[in-house]
Amino acid sequence: MLFTSSNRSRQSAFLKPVDVTPHVVQKRINIALIEEFYIKNDTQTEDFYDFSCSYRKKTVPLRRKIVACHRKTLESIMFHRDFYLQKLINAGKNDMIKIVTGIRRCGKSYLLFEIFHNYLLSQGVKKDHIIELAMDDEHNKSLRNSDKLLDYIDNHLIGDGETSYVILDEVQMVDNFIGVLLSMTHKRNVQTFVSGSNSRFLSKDVVTEFRGRGWEIRMRPLSFAEYYEAVGGDKGQALNDYYIYGGLPEVAKMSSPEEKETYLKDVYRTIYLRDIIERNHLHNEEGLEQIFRVLASTMGTAVNPTKIANTFLSAAQIKISANTISKYIEHLKDAFMVNEALRYDIKGRKYIGADSKFYFEDPGIRNAILGFRQVEETHIMENVLYNELCSRGYTVDVGLVEVWGRDDQGKTIRKKLEVDYVVNRGSQRIYIQSAYRMSDAEKKAQEQRPLTHIGDSFRKVIITGDYARGLYNDDGIYRMGVYEFLLNRECLND
Question: What residues form DSSP beta bridges with 191?
């Protein structure tokens, strides 16, 4: 037998982590992984207990065997991305060009060539009715000529009245690719799906170039639910890793912190940063990096280009105009690196055009920009919640509520309280506060105060960084834990 209720606590104590810093957090062997290993190898409980004692001394050779097993398991992880597959399926009902956009390395190619391809086969689509081309493959170099590509597609269309599927990856590498895709809209019984690197193939381009004939499917890195579905294990450990290293699929398959940190730093510098510089013909690489670092270090704080320019001048004696900073921020937004949350006056029902908050598309990239030095759970949780709300189709703003009070001298003063997220989708509106900890009455009152002063009947929610069960309090405010929120896409619809 293994792990009875009487011996579980005794065994767990020997594997309880002492040091939980980011650099050692994945060097620990999760107790569930060891349990799985012993079950597969039919090892008795007493053997496990002896192993756990020796594990603390780091003297058991079997530890290396389990680590190797764990590494192999991670490398073979498959991410289903069902949410995006369903979007592709639904989009197949229209005749527009289906365009998958998103940050580099978020899994667009895998979605089309593996997940969607296998789905089509499962639905009875014949292989010769699927035309797939990766335009960054040197074997397809000649097809980067638009005329040759169109000829190739025409020659491979069956023309038997059944629907054919044309799937093109990195289509921006084709000369006059806009013309090619517009030509595809004139072909009968053909569904066209494309993706491209975000540096030259952006949602803004989709809107302007495809003249109403493009259907954008915005893809993001793994959500925590997608990540946890694949890696499993302890939820707290998984969320901690997700906060630090983010949701890029390749990162999730890596086993050691060193591998993950190296990959994230490299992909930031050699892909994301380089793409933005080349696309926008920028010459001040250092200035762009400085703006990256400022936005990363002030994540969750309201800023504007003038404030950033003043910070550069006072702290680093670097002179960059507010106008230049504004343009650089637009480049980062265009590349899906950061997202801007506007400030909204809830009672006045208008946007306030001064400061904005900026959140990173992936927390791992944000942490890599700062060398994994400023990993504050409060701000990262706020970023993760923002990303999750956006992925669920909500428009997300930062709310401000005006209240009147008195200062220390008894004078009447006006204050503005902040609501972390004002989320809208259709007729639905929800006010949400992110509270990593709500440990005492004072902190509870602080988080609830903006919500209680709003004065309308829309739902009000506080999300805490724990396992709290969803409950309403006497003020009608719903409190839920971060795990319930991140792992249940329908939790806000209850």
Answer: 165
